[in-house]
């Protein structure tokens, strides 16, 4: 925050009573997207909007020096972080995330996660870098390796011979959100033709401000509230397709009305296409508030519905689900077991729904993996094998729980309540 006695600058300077005393040149450099300019004791300063750092901003020298100062700050912070990570005794987990800009350029964010000496979990974005196409596994791994070498991470925990848990059996974990996106996209590819006219209509009426204005005027004439603007989807993000359809459906009566006025608007969706969009929207909404374990159960329900298109969608999505689930479910299950809210009970609830008669075998596999992890940590621990026992409360009080369809774990709560006589506190 600017200190007391400082004056913020936008395009002019004012006195405390609001009287304009001088006009300043408008701040045009892109650097001011991340800085606020103030005057303090007659000196111009730039205050970072993110870290609140203060840099001199002498207008005579322009803003080029601010870029240099930012890079100097970055290098200092980077060196401190590298030094800290080299001395850190705990393991470091690295995750990557691909991000696509409005210009369709792809960037990789690299994040490090670790637990410090006080058992606090930390994560830091350590690199955000442009990745040129094609985005093959070789290209992505090269970008990651450049980071590892630059940050000396290759010399720390990634001496792969003896550092990885379980000899690297579960070294790579796919991003669950990305997997979910691939599963839903597989289904959306099936209905590409059915929703294409809606997509083209949204693209046409959201292309220019004048068309948007004409669209909103037509909506108001039909007394349809213009609470949301039309939004064209990005085909690589399933939720953007859901949002596009859900918003367009609220304006479905506007499109045929505009067809009568706009000769260049040629692709009005039919009533059948709108009905299909409504059904798809209702089903896609499920994925906004669902656990991975529940996806398969939901897709099985889709397979027995009366709509042939939805059946085809479900079949394609199930194949994609099985492909990725087989590679990530063990790590996800172990993480869930380590969560004191769930423990092994969550597998006992979900796995019978997913594996049927094979559920007990799958649970035992994961139980065995947990024991392997425990043994490995015990063998490398300086603390030895200390054990402790905890008594159970004899005065437990049963809580009356009700199913809440808005809470994806509400059924699990009821399962725990019905299979244990211990008190169960609802999750926050």
Describe what you observe in this structure.
The structure is a single chain. The protein is of the alpha+beta class. 46% of the residues lie in helices and 13% in strands. It has 13 helices and nine strands. Helix 4 packs across helix 8. The longest helix has 31 residues. It is flat and about 75 Å long. The C terminus is likely disordered.
What percent strand? 5-15%
Rg, Cα atoms, Å: 28 Å
Number of helices: 13
Query: Percentage of helical residues?
Result: 40-55%
How widely separated are the two ends? 33 Å
Structural class: alpha+beta
Shape: flat
- The arrangement of helices and strands along the chain is EEEEEEHEEEHHHHHHHHHHHH
Mean pLDDT: 80
Low-confidence stretches: 10-23, 158-162, 382-401, 422-428
Beta strands, count: 9
Strand arrangement, largest sheet? 1-4-5-6
Largest sheet: 4 strands, antiparallel
How are the SSEs placed, and which strands pair?
Layout (H helix, E strand, L loop, with lengths): L6 E3 L2 E3 L5 E4 L11 E6 L2 E6 L5 E3 L7 H24 L4 E9 L5 E10 L5 E10 L6 H14 L25 H15 L1 H14 L3 H13 L16 H13 L3 H6 L11 H14 L7 H12 L4 H31 L6 H11 L3 H22 L29 H10 L9
Task: Fill in the keyword field for this structure.
single chain; 9 strands; 4-stranded antiparallel β-sheet; 46% helix; 428 residues
Brief synopsis:
The protein has helices at 64-87, 137-150, 176-190, 192-205, 209-221, 238-250, 254-259, 271-284, 292-303, 308-338, 345-355, 359-380, 410-419, and strands at 7-9, 12-14, 20-23, 35-40, 43-48, 54-56, 92-100, 106-115, 121-130.
């Amino acid at each position: 925050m600017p200190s007391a006695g400082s004056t913020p600058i936008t395009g002019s300077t004012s006195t405390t009573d609001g009287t304009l005393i001088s006009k300043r040149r408008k701040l045009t450099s892109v650097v001011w997207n991340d800085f606020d300019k103030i005057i303090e004791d007659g000196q111009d300063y730039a205050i970072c909007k993110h870290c609140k750092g203060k840099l001199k901003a002498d207008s005579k020298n322009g803003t080029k020096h601010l870029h240099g100062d930012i890079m100097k700050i970055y290098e200092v912070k980077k060196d401190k972080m590298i030094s800290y990570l080299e001395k850190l005794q705990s393991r470091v987990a690295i995750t990557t995330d691909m991000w696509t800009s409005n210009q369709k350029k792809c960037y990789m964010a690299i994040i490090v996660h670790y637990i410090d000496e006080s058992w606090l979990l930390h994560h830091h974005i350590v690199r955000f870098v442009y990745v040129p196409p094609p985005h093959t596994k070789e290209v992505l791994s090269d970008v990651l390796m450049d980071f590892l070498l630059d940050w000396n991470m290759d010399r720390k925990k990634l001496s792969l011979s003896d550092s990885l848990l379980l000899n690297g059996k579960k070294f790579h974990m796919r991003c669950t959100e990305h997997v979910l996106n691939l599963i839903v996209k597989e289904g959306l590819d099936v209905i590409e033709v059915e929703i294409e006219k809606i997509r083209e209509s949204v693209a046409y009426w959201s292309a220019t401000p004048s068309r948007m204005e004409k669209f909103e005027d037509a909506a108001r004439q039909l007394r349809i509230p213009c609470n949301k603007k039309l939004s064209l989807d990005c085909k690589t993000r399933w939720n953007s397709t859901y949002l596009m359809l859900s918003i367009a459906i609220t304006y479905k009566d506007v499109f045929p009305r505009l067809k009568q006025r706009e000769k260049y608007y040629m692709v009005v969706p039919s009533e059948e296409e709108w009905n299909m969009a409504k059904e798809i929207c209702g089903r896609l909404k499920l994925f906004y508030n669902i656990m991975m374990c529940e996806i398969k159960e939901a897709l099985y329900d889709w397979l027995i519905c009366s709509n042939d298109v939805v059946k085809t969608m479900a079949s394609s999505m199930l194949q994609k689900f099985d492909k990725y689930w087989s590679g990530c479910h063990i790590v996800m299950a172990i993480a869930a077991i380590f969560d004191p809210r769930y423990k092994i009970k969550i597998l006992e609830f979900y796995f019978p729904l997913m594996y049927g008669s094979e559920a007990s075998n799958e649970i035992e596999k994961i139980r065995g993996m947990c024991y392997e992890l425990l043994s490995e940590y015990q063998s490398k621990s300086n603390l030895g094998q200390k054990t402790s026992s905890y008594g159970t409360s004899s005065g437990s009080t049963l809580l009356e729980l009700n199913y809440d369809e808005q809470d994806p774990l509400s059924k699990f709560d009821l399962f725990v309540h019905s299979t244990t006589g211990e008190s169960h506190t609802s999750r926050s």
